[in-house]
Design a protein that fits this description.
Layout: E1 4-10, E2 13-19, E3 28-34, E4 37-49, E5 58-63, H1 86-99, E6 109-119, H2 126-139, E7 150-157, E8 160-163, H3 167-172, E9 175-182, E10 185-196, H4 198-226, H5 240-250, H6 253-258, H7 263-284, H8 290-314, E11 329-333, E12 341-347, E13 350-359, E14 365-367, E15 375-377, E16 379-384, H9 401-415, E17 427-436, H10 441-455, E18 465-473, E19 479-483, H11 487-492, E20 495-501, E21 506-513, H12 520-544, E22 558-563, H13 569-573, H14 578-587, E23 590-593, E24 598-603, H15 606-620, E25 628-637, E26 640-646, E27 649-654, E28 675-683, E29 689-692, H16 694-697
Parallel strand pairs: 5-6, 16-17, 27-29
Antiparallel strand pairs: 1-2, 2-3, 3-4, 4-6, 7-8, 7-9, 9-10, 10-21, 11-12, 12-13, 13-17, 14-15, 18-19, 18-20, 20-21, 22-24, 23-24, 25-26, 25-28, 26-27, 28-29
Helix pairs in contact: 1-2, 1-9, 2-4, 4-12, 5-8, 7-8, 9-10
């Protein structure tokens, strides 16, 4: 099979691109590898435009294959990949978000990009490799696209920024950020950090940008050698005279509708202008139904023009705020009576209710993906966005890709603030319900979740807040950064930067753009402005609750931690789990045992927990010489009696030690079932316990 191979040294790694005959019917296909991780990326464009749509139909898929890691998937009953894992969905979104801005959105032909992981070496994450592969597949295809782009991961390990670190290095890092972009600009960010400064973030992005430029040049050289001419895909065009007529008709009608504070009133007035426009078009062009759709497109373009012009040239926002001004803020804790913790965060018309649930260590989620086998996830955040939150109707299905992405962003922004398991052994789940949305419900979820954690008494390392930042820019290089974007600013803005953190630093960030990218200067201004907003939000939250509650909810389970000899674990579990299951059944508690001998007993009922603790203590207790026990006689032999000093532990009381008088036989002093005081006088070399009843009968000799 004919192969053309290209390679690029990237830091201490080598990226290899191979063009082969594989997937030859796709418009573009390449194999990209780093180490032994190999990704096949394909790009296909439909031959004809889709009729009746007014958007660009792009879909991006990331396919994990268990065989890539040499593993069989699923349970004993299902042995093939089923629905995409959360990690696969998040990676598909990463790829989509950096590719999409570089397409002409007037194209109506379907475009699908698929990245399939064929080999995975457990060291090099396939996500960034897939981004590079998708870019190269598009760039070398005949599909119209304004790439290529570069993508890298940057992590700071022991104070030093590393490029495309291994999983082991990432586990030690205090920040982990994926950056994508084109020459001189960044068009996608995704990452988390351990309260690092904005200056450190800029340092990470500068390093990333230098390697992005190398990747773009590398792919450009590949395109020059194996690329094919781009096809002229049909782009939806509007008759210029019709365009001018619609613009003239709208004139100043849009300004009055757009510039008001209330979202519902704004939506009502915009809809009214749209209705009048439709009537005008229907009257002027009664025989051309397509003109109404074209008119709505012009309408949207004019809103974009007006919003950009007023903000860039006049610093005028639709709701009248200053560029760095937040909407009205408020927060509530303890809103729900029976949950383990709850918080409501409100910013303008955005309202999010976050609810905390605490569980036992065994409630952790088991992760089984291509990358992770039998992994355990102790902290979870889930995000819901029902249709009513934007005043619409819609089917109530499972979480969308957007829901999963927003939930994961808030989770990453909070994860490094969660206490270590040794300090707080609970499994922690947060659910954020978007009750009303008008701008950045994901960042409101960070705020609401922080409130819920503190309301529930979780000793978090810091309280986090988040904010969405926007950008309006023009072809001349002028730009304005906006704090707390909403409504038209969100829909028509050039950037959506979500950034979360504590007063000490940044914990999570995500950025998407609608232009080809943003400069480092723009991002620096946005980071500075975002920090100011974050501190203002934190001040409001801290007036509601200043620290985690000292006591957890009465309805939350309590976990009692014991440390036992690891050799005693088998005694607590018993043959086939008989002993531990008996404890659980009798007391109603949950019991989790770690290999190091840590035992976690979880129960809402304290009496049940105490009973279980006593039971485990009795099983695992180790007798010490000199201790006195109330022992039960279990067996009588000619030479003495065997007694149980505590459950599962027996010893011998020799006949000479049963009484302070001479005995011919042990049954002269005790019978089976008797409870007698005994003292442990010796543990022999074989671990056998020698006990004495006589020693408990002897009175202490009075002091002279």
């Amino acid at each position: 099979m004919e192969t053309k191979e290209f390679s690029l040294s990237l830091g201490n790694k080598t990226v290899v691109v191979r063009k082969t005959a594989l997937a030859g019917q796709a418009n573009g296909s390449v194999l990209v590898s780093c180490g032994d991780t190999v990704v096949l990326a394909t790009a296909v464009m439909g031959k004809n435009p889709r009729e009746g749509i007014d958007y660009f139909p792009l879909s991006v898929e990331y396919e994990e294959r268990f065989y890539a890691a040499g593993r069989l998937p699923g349970s004993r009953f299902i042995k093939r990949e089923a629905k995409a894992s959360q990690e696969a969905i998040l990676t598909a979104r990463l790829i989509d978000r950096c590719l999409r801005p570089l397409f002409n959105h007037g194209i109506r032909n379907e475009v699908q990009v698929v990245a399939t992981v064929l080999s995975f070496d457990q060291e090099n994450d396939a996500d960034v490799i897939a981004m590079i592969a998708a870019s190269t597949a598009l760039a070398t295809s005949n599909i119209p696209w304004s790439g290529p782009l570069g993508a890298v991961r940057v992590a700071r390990v022991n104070g030093v920024f590393e490029l495309n670190p291994t999983y082991e290095e990432r586990a030690k890092a205090d920040c982990d950020i994926v950056v994508a972009g084109v020459d001189g600009k960044i068009n996608m960010l995704e990452g988390d950090a351990d309260q690092i400064s904005e200056d450190a973030l800029m340092e990470a992005l500068a390093l990333a940008q230098s390697y992005i430029e190398k990747l773009v040049a590398f792919q450009t050289s590949i395109v020059q050698e194996i690329g094919v001419a781009k096809v002229a895909a049909p782009v939806a065009e509007i008759d210029p005279s019709f365009h001018d007529a619609v613009v003239a008709f709208l004139h100043d009608k849009l300004n009055a509708a757009l510039y008001q504070e209330n979202k519902q009133q704004r939506a009502h007035d915009i809809a009214a202008v749209q209705s009048v426009l439709k009537e005008y078009i229907a009257t002027e062009h009664p025989d051309d139904a397509g003109k109404i759709k074209a008119g709505m497109k012009i309408f949207d373009e004019q809103v974009d023009v007006i919003v950009h012009d007023n903000i860039i040239n006049h610093e005028k926002r639709p709701d009248g705020r200053k560029l760095d001004e937040l909407r009205a803020l408020s927060s509530i804790v303890g809103f729900l009576p029976r949950t383990h913790g709850s918080g409501i965060f409100m910013r303008g018309e955005t309202q999010v209710l976050s609810v905390l649930t605490l569980g036992s260590p065994s409630d952790q989620q088991i992760i089984d993906t291509m990358e992770t086998k039998d992994g355990m996830k102790r902290f979870m955040h889930h995000y819901n966005f029902p249709s009513y939150s934007v005043g619409e109707t819609g089917p109530m299905r499972g979480p969308s890709r957007r829901d999963i992405g927003h939930g994961a962003l808030a989770e990453r922004s909070l994860a490094r603030l969660i206490p270590e398991q040794k300090d707080f052994p609970y499994t922690i789940r947060l659910v954020s319900e978007t009750l009303s949305s008008n701008g950045s419900s994901s960042m409101a979820s960070v705020c609401g979740s922080s409130l819920a954690l503190m309301d529930g008494g979780v000793p978090i390392k810091g309280i986090a807040a988040g904010i969405a930042m926007g950008l309006m820019s023009d072809a001349k290089g002028n730009y304005k950064v906006l704090t707390d974007i909403q409504g038209p600013e969100d829909h028509h803005g050039d950037m959506d930067l979500k950034i979360a953190g504590t007063a000490q630093g940044v914990t999570g960030l995500q950025m998407d753009v609608k232009v080809d990218g943003v400069t480092g200067e723009m991002l620096k201004d946005a980071f500075i402005q975002a920090k100011k907003a974050r501190l203002e939000i934190l001040d409001v939250m801290l007036t509601t609750i200043s620290e985690p509650r000292k006591e957890m909810s009465q309805y939350a389970p309590r976990i009692i931690t014991l440390q036992i000899n690891p050799d005693k674990i088998r005694d607590v579990i018993g043959p086939g789990g008989k002993v531990i299951n008996e404890i659980i059944k009798s007391t109603g508690v949950a019991i989790d045992i770690e290999d190091d001998g840590s035992v976690f007993i979880t129960s809402v009922d304290q009496e049940s927990a105490k009973k279980a603790v006593e039971w485990v203590n009795n099983i695992t207790r180790e007798a010490k010489v000199g201790e006195v026990f109330q022992a039960t006689v279990k067996k009588i032999m000619d030479f003495g009696a065997f007694v149980e000093i505590f459950p599962g532990t027996e010893g011998l009381v020799h006949v000479s030690q049963l009484s302070d008088k001479y005995l011919n036989h042990p049954d002269e002093a005790v019978k089976i079932g008797d409870v007698i005081p005994v003292k442990l006088v010796e543990i022999d070399s074989q671990g056998r316990l020698n006990l004495s009843r006589k020693a408990t009968m002897q009175k202490e000799t009075p002091a002279a």
